[in-house]
Amino acid sequence: MCGGGGGASNQAQQMEQQRQASIAKNVADINTAFGGREGQYDDFVTARRAQYGDELGRQQKVATRQNKFALARSGLTGGSAAVDTGKKLADEFNLGTINAENRASGELAGLKSADENSRNQMIALAQSGASIGNGAAQTAAGLRANIESARANSVPDALGSVFGQSADIYKQMQEQAAIRKGLRYSSLYAQPNSGYGGNQ
Question: What's the whole-model pTM score?
Fold first, then answer.
């Protein structure tokens, strides 16, 4: 009787040791799957910086061209107005660069957070003794899903209108040019013998 009880106890102890060994292996495999993630993080944030840099450069070209033409139409090329608008463009570009970096860094932080959540969930499952199959493969699949989701969350025009104040200046110059043009035409129509104005 005692011998039988000891056998059952030994068997239970062996099974528990095997369970603990399986848990430890799964946890180690899960942690190993995160080992090569830094390179992927670098690639992700580099791609985001390039995307936002391209958007910033495109907006800068448009704003520079618009202001150049507006200054030329207003006869202000080379004057203090040109210096002021140039400074405004530079200031907005610098702010846009900071905003782009903040967005890229924020998205990287979001990806890292999603990864850490996935890792913790997988470890919790492994430690609970749940059957998770191949821990490394399951974790790698979760990591792939996280990075694909982060890449897919790219928002067109995420930077917004970086050169909004310069665009306002451009709009004001356009409006002023239209007013001046209107005044020129109205003065022509109001001249004597023009058929318009008070001499009719």
Answer: 0.68
With beta carbons less than 8 A apart as the criterion, state whether 59 and 162 touch. yes
8 A C-beta contact, residue 40 and residue 150: no
**Per-residue confidence (pLDDT) for residue 43, from 0 to 100:** 93
Burial of 39 (0-12, 13-18, 19+ CB in 10 A): exposed
Contact 99, 162 (CB under 8 A): yes
pLDDT at 114: 93
- 31: its two tokens: 């942690």
C-alpha–C-alpha distance, residues 177 and 73, integer Å: 7
Spatial distance between the Cα atoms of 115 and 150, rounded to a whole number of angstroms = 11
- Other C-beta atoms within 10 Å of 73: how many? 15
| Beta carbons within 8 Å of 165's beta carbon, 6+ residues apart | 88, 92
Q: Bin 197: left if φ > 0, else alpha if -120 < ψ < 50, else beta.
A: left
